[in-house]
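User: Predict the structure for this protein chain, please.
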Amino acid sequence: MLMVKLKDLFTSEKSLLCGDFDLAQLQQNITDYRNDKILKMSQAVPNFATDVKEEEKLIILIDIVGFSKDTTRNQVYKIYLFQRYLMGHVFSNKLSFNEKIKINHFVPTGDGCYIVAEKCSPEAALDFLITVISGFKEIKTEESGALALRASALFGKVVPFLDMARHLNYIGEGMNEAARILSGGQKILEDTFIKDHLNLGGGLLKTVMNNEAILANGKEKLEAEAKLFSRNSLYLGDSLAENLEAYKEACTKIYSFPSVADKHGMKRNVTVLQGIN
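Assistant: Here is the predicted structure, written as structure tokens:
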């Protein structure tokens, strides 16, 4: 179990966590941005026939649960623990996936990250994901206990590009689909939990339907429990949702939701490995 105090994050392993600060290099970077050559490159329109090439990749989106509701202090604390785990274990191949999983890049999202990797076997991808999520559960924070995550994954198409910060980044349908699988899957899983519990034991709904205050209070508690229910779960697109029999022991339950709609009305099937052990 990893337990780190906030102050230690800024006094140890500085180069691993956030790198050495170089003011001269920062000033040079600003100068580079103002360079005419850089400006011309940024204004160039790509030749879509030759420059934009889609690549089939394993796309993973990991989200830290409850991050946006945290204090700034705890957000800083959680994101450094998150980075420490990924950089310390994934980059150093401590998870022993160096032969099966080849990671191309990490794309920060603020409250988590995308992981873009070479396409591999579905089994290798699922083994990797379950191991990563299980490992995060062992990390404890000072204020809110275990670091909880949700993750989605699929094989999808992306296009690499140089972003505004001149970092390698990715764009494309696969990145969008990972986000939709995660948000849509989480919502329908939580709705299913609430619906099941409202009708549990002869019908909680029937018992309180004539008392709006009791009903509202009961639903509020259920919604909070539903959030707990959906954490530490893995949300999968169809490309990773076959032959999951071997993974029943790795989670509490497997849910299959057909035609899950997003806010644009687009639909996809979502399979959830709820409660990774």
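DSSP finds nine helices and eleven strands in the chain.
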